[in-house]
Specification:
Number of helices of chain B: 3
Order of helices and strands of chain B: HHH
Oligomer: heterodimer
Number of helices of chain A: 21
Strand content of chain B: under 5%
Shape of chain A: flat
Helix content of chain B: over 70%
Number of strands of chain A: 17
Chain lengths: 721, 100
C-alpha cells in the first residue's frame, strides 16, 4: 500500500489505522515485561517523590511525608524486582536442565546406535567362523536341553555314547547291581547309596506317659528324606554356623532337644567352647523331670531364672543372672579367644522374669523404706530396675555384634513377634532363623511364610508353602507320627528351606572342667589333661596364683577375724573390704584386702556379695561361730558418770544401735536417733543426751566428731576398747 | 559483575538508607533538637572514620599496635560497612545542600 495514495479524509482509513494501532498496542502490551516496567517505574517515581520536594523547598512536613512514601515505593519495587529475578533464574535453570537432559538422551542414543552398528559388524564378521571361535557375547542364547556350547552333545547324549561304546567292548553296567544308577534328580546326599530302602519306613506305637493316648511313631534312621523334605542334622549346622540363632516353636516341638544336640555338636567342633546357659524354664520337680542341657545343667554356667520363681530365690537368681549378663557384655565388647556360646531357652520368659524381679524388688524397697523411717542409704534391697531392658539390649547386641567377637547366641522362645521375643526386627536380618513344628503344631513354621518381613520374596514363600503342604499330605498319609520334627530355617547358606530333623540319639553329657566348671567348684583349680592345644593354652591363661604374702595374710586374717568380727561385721554378717583393711594391718589398701579375701573365697571359707553400697565379703559358717550376738556391757572398772537422763539400759541401746552401723560412716545425731524408734520412744533419748553420750564415746575413740559444733560424727568402731 | 534485576533491588535498598538520613535532616527543620541527635551521630561517625583511618594507616605502615584496634562493624564486612556509611552520608549531604 502506498502511503501517498491513501485518502486520509476517509473515516474508514482512520478506523483502519486505529485498529492497527490497537492491535499493535495489544501485541506490545502482551510482549512487554510488565513486572519489570512497574518495578523500574516505581524506582523513578520514588526518587522523584523524594528529591523534587527537597528541590522545591516545600514545607518540611510535606517533604518528609513524600520521602516516607518514596521509601515505601522503593521497598515495593525492590521486592517485585527480586521476585522477577527469581522467576528469571528459575526459568534459566529449567532451560539448562532440559538442555542437559536432551544432550544426555542424544548421547545415549548415539552411543547405542554406534554400539549396534559395531555389533552388527562383529556379527557379520563372525558368520563364517566355527562356534568355538565366535566371541561368547555373539552366540545365540542356548535352548532348553542343549549343552553349554551350541551344537555340542548334552549329558544324556554322552551317556548314550558311553553305553554304545561299552556294548561294543562287551561290558555293560546293567548287569552289575552294585553300581548305583546315575539319575539327574538324585540329591547329592544320596549319591552312591542304594535307592531301594529309602521309601520304606517302619512304624511303631507308644503310650504317651502324660496323656495316656496311643501315639504313632516312625523310624527315620537310615533315611535321607521324609515327606519330600531332606533330613538335615540342624544341630551340626548350628554348631558350624558362626552367626547367632533365633529359634521359635511351641511347647513340645523339640527346642530343648535341639539345643542339647547343638551343644554336643559345638563341643565336637571346638572342645574349648565356653557355654553359658540361661534357662528360663524349670523342670517338673514332682515327676523328677529336670532340665537337660547336655550336662551343662550341672555347671555353674547354667542360670535358671524363671518367671515362676519368687522371693529370695528370684532375687538370688536375678543377681547371678545380671552379673553374668554384664560379663558377657564385656566379652562382646572386648572379644574372646575361645568361642563363647550363650544358650537361651525361652528368652521371652526371661524378660518376664526380669520384670518380675524388678517388681518384687520395688515392693521390698517400699516395705523397707516404710519400716525404717529414715534409712541408711547404704543398705536396702537390690533393685533390678533396668534388668529387662539390659537383657533385651544384650540379646540385640549379642546376636549382631557377637559374631565378630566369637560370641554366638542361640536364643529360643515361644513366640515369633518382635516384642515378645525381645529383639528388634533388624536383628532378624543378621542371624539365622529356626522355626520348629511337630505333631500338629506348625505355627512357628508357617508364620514366617506369611510374613514378608521374614521372607521377602513371594516366590520363596509360595515354594515353601507348597513344600509344607506336600509334606503334611504325605505325613498325614503315613498316620501323622508324632516323633517327626520339621523346621523352617536359614541356617547355612542355602536361604530359606524346610527340613526334617533326624531322630537324634541320646547325647552324652559334656565333660565339665575349666571352661565350664561344675557347680560345686573345688577350692583349688586342678589342671586337666587334654590333648587339645587350645584348651591347654586357655587353661594356662586362667590359672590364678597368689603371692606368698597374700597367702600368709589370709592365714593371719582368720584368727584376727574370729577375734574382731563383732566390730567389723555388720548386722548381716558382711565385711566391707574398703574399711576393714586399715584395721587388719599390713595392707597397703583395699585392693590388697580384696586379694586376701579372694584367697579365702577360693578356699571356700567365704564369698563376695554385691549389695547396694558396693561389694562385701561374707565369711562362711566354718570360719565364724554361729548365732552369737555380741552385746556390749560396760565393764565396771570403766564405768563413769552417766550423762544426765541416761540410764545404763539406754546407753547400752545406743551402743548396740551404733554397732549396727558400718565402721567409717558419718552420721548426724538427729539422723542417728531417727533411725531407731526404740531409742526415741522407749528410752526417751533426745539429741542433747545423745551428743553428751557421744562425747564420752569420743574419748574412748569409738566415735569422732568432725567439727567443734558436734553436728556430725564418724563411727570408728572398736567398742571393746 | 552481572547487572540483573537484583542489582536494581539492591540499589533500592541502599536508597532507603539515604532516604532515612534525608528524613533525619529534614526533621531538623520541624524539631530543632534533632540537630543535636544528627550532630551526635555525625560526631560518632567521624570518630569511627578517624579510628578506622588511624588503624589502616598503622596497618599499612606495618605497626603492631594496629592489629589491636578492633571496631564493631555491625557484623558485616568492612566494605559493606563503608558503603552503608556512604549511602547514609550522601543522603544527608544531598538533603542538606537542597534545603539549606
Amino acid at each position: 500500500m502506498n502511503v501517498l495514495e491513501v485518502d486520509f479524509s476517509e473515516k474508514r482509513v482512520w478506523r483502519g489505522i486505529g485498529s492497527a494501532i490497537t492491535q499493535g498496542s495489544k501485541v506490545a502490551y502482551d510482549a512487554a515485561p510488565k513486572k519489570a516496567i512497574l518495578g523500574y517505574a516505581g524506582i523513578v517515581v520514588a526518587l522523584g517523590l523524594w528529591l523534587s520536594p527537597l528541590s522545591q523547598r516545600l514545607h518540611p512536613r510535606v517533604s518528609i511525608t513524600l520521602s516516607l512514601g518514596a521509601a515505601g515505593l522503593l521497598a515495593l519495587s525492590a521486592s517485585s524486582l527480586d521476585d522477577l529475578q527469581d522467576d528469571s533464574d528459575e526459568a534459566r535453570q529449567g532451560k539448562e536442565l532440559n538442555r542437559a537432559l536432551r544432550q544426555t538422551a542424544v548421547e545415549s542414543v548415539e552411543a547405542t546406535r554406534q554400539y549396534a552398528a559395531i555389533t552388527s559388524e562383529r556379527v557379520a564378521a563372525s558368520q563364517g567362523l566355527p562356534a568355538h571361535l565366535i566371541e561368547p557375547d555373539l552366540l545365540p542364547p542356548k535352548e532348553e536341553g542343549q549343552g553349554y556350547v551350541a551344537g555340542q552333545p548334552s549329558m544324556s547324549d554322552f551317556d548314550a555314547l558311553i553305553a554304545e561304546e561299552e556294548k561294543k567292548l562287551g561290558t555293560s553296567t546293567e548287569t552289575e547291581e552294585s553300581q548305583p544308577a546315575y539319575t539327574k534328580a538324585e540329591p547329592l546326599a544320596t549319591m552312591g547309596k542304594p535307592v531301594a530302602a529309602q521309601t520304606q519306613y517302619s512304624f511303631s506305637t507308644r503310650i504317651n506317659p502324660r496323656s495316656n493316648a496311643e501315639e504313632r511313631l516312625i523310624d527315620l534312621n537310615g533315611h535321607d528324606t521324609y515327606g519330600g523334605l531332606p533330613i538335615v542334622d540342624l544341630a551340626a549346622e548350628m554348631a558350624s554356623d558362626p552367626r547367632g540363632c533365633l529359634g521359635f516353636g511351641s511347647t513340645g516341638c523339640g527346642k530343648s532337644e535341639l539345643l542339647k544336640q547343638a551343644i554336643a555338636a559345638q563341643v565336637k567342633v571346638d572342645e574349648a567352647s565356653d557355654f553359658t546357659v540361661f534357662a528360663h524354664k524349670s523342670g517338673n520337680a514332682a515327676t523328677g523331670e529336670e532340665i537337660d542341657y547336655a550336662g551343662l545343667e550341672k555347671s555353674s554356667d547354667c542360670f535358671v531364672f524363671t518367671a515362676s520363681q519368687t522371693g529370695s530365690t528370684l532375687e538370688r537368681e536375678a543377681t547371678r543372672f545380671e552379673r553374668r549378663v554384664k560379663v558377657l557384655e564385656g566379652l562382646i565388647e572386648e572379644g574372646c579367644l575361645a568361642p563363647t556360646v550363650v544358650v537361651i531357652d525361652q528368652s521371652n520368659q526371661g524378660i518376664k522374669a526380669a520384670n518380675k524381679a524388678h517388681r518384687e524388688a520395688k515392693q521390698r524397697r517400699e516395705e523397707y523404706n516404710a519400716s525404717v523411717e529414715k534409712c541408711d542409704q547404704d543398705r536396702g534391697p537390690i533393685d533390678f530396675k533396668y534388668l529387662a531392658e539390659d537383657y533385651s539390649e544384650f540379646l540385640n547386641t549379642g546376636l549382631v555384634d557377637g559374631r565378630t567377637k566369637k560370641v554366638k547366641l542361640w536364643s529360643f522362645g515361644h513366640a515369633n513377634t518382635n516384642k515378645s521375643a525381645g529383639v528388634d526386627h533388624q536383628i532378624k536380618q543378621n542371624v539365622f532363623f529356626i522355626g520348629l513344628g511337630r505333631a500338629g503344631n506348625y505355627q512357628a513354621v508357617e508364620n514366617p511364610m506369611k510374613d514378608n518381613r521374614f521372607i521377602s520374596s513371594q516366590s520363596d514363600r509360595d515354594r515353601l508353602q507348597a513344600q509344607l503342604n506336600d509334606y503334611l499330605q504325605q505325613h498325614n498319609a503315613n498316620g501323622a507320627p508324632v516323633n517327626v520334627v520339621i523346621a523352617i530355617t536359614t541356617c547355612g547358606n542355602e536361604g530359606w528351606r524346610l527340613v526334617v530333623l533326624p531322630q537324634y540319639q541320646p547325647v552324652e553329657p559334656i565333660k565339665l572342667g575349666l571352661t565350664n566348671p561344675p557347680k560345686e567348684a573345688p577350692a583349688k583349680i586342678e589342671s586337666e589333661p587334654t590333648h587339645n592345644s587350645q584348651a591347654a593354652s586357655l587353661e594356662a591363661m586362667l590359672k590364678i596364683s597368689y603371692t606368698q604374702g597374700q597367702v600368709e595374710a589370709a592365714r593371719r586374717f582368720i584368727p584376727w577375724l574370729r577375734t574382731n568380727h563383732a566390730m567389723h561385721c555388720d548386722s548381716s554378717g558382711l565385711i566391707n573390704p574398703q574399711t576393714v583393711w586399715s584395721y587388719f594391718g599390713g595392707m597397703a589398701g583395699s585392693e590388697d584386702m580384696e586379694a586376701v579375701l579372694q584367697v579365702l573365697t577360693d578356699q571356700g571359707v567365704g564369698e563376695f556379695v554385691n549389695v547396694s553400697g558396693g561389694t562385701r565379703w561374707k565369711p562362711s559358717a566354718k570360719l565364724l561361730p554361729q548365732n552369737k550376738t555380741v552385746r556390749y556391757t560396760v565393764p565396771a572398772a570403766k564405768q563413769q558418770a552417766k550423762p544426765k537422763g541416761l540410764t545404763t539400759e539406754s546407753i547400752g541401746a545406743v551402743i548396740n544401735h551404733l554397732s549396727n552401723k558400718q565402721i567409717g560412716t558419718y552420721h548426724t545425731p538427729s539422723e542417728f536417733l531417727n533411725s531407731s524408734r526404740v531409742l526415741r520412744q522407749k528410752f526417751g533419748i533426745d539429741a542433747d543426751m545423745l551428743v553428751q553420750l557421744l562425747g564420752v564415746l569420743e574419748k574412748r575413740d569409738v566415735v569422732a566428731f568432725t567439727d567443734t559444733t558436734k553436728t556430725q560424727f564418724q563411727y570408728k568402731g572398736a567398742i571393746a576398747k | 559483575m552481572r547487572i540483573t534485576h537484583r542489582t536494581a533491588a539492591t540499589f533500592c535498598r541502599y536508597c532507603l538508607l539515604s532516604i532515612a538520613a534525608s528524613v533525619a535532616i529534614q526533621l531538623i527543620k520541624v524539631w530543632a533538637d534533632m540537630a543535636v541527635i544528627v550532630g551526635a551521630v555525625g560526631v560518632v561517625g567521624l570518630v569511627y572514620a578517624l579510628v578506622f583511618a588511624v588503624r589502616y594507616y598503622g596497618l599499612f605502615k606495618g605497626a603492631r599496635w594496629a592489629n589491636d584496634i578492633d571496631l564493631h562493624t555491625l557484623d558485616i564486612g568492612l566494605i559493606e560497612f563503608v558503603s552503608f556509611a556512604a549511602w547514609l552520608g550522601s543522603g544527608a549531604l544531598i538533603t542538606w545542600l537542597l534545603i539549606w
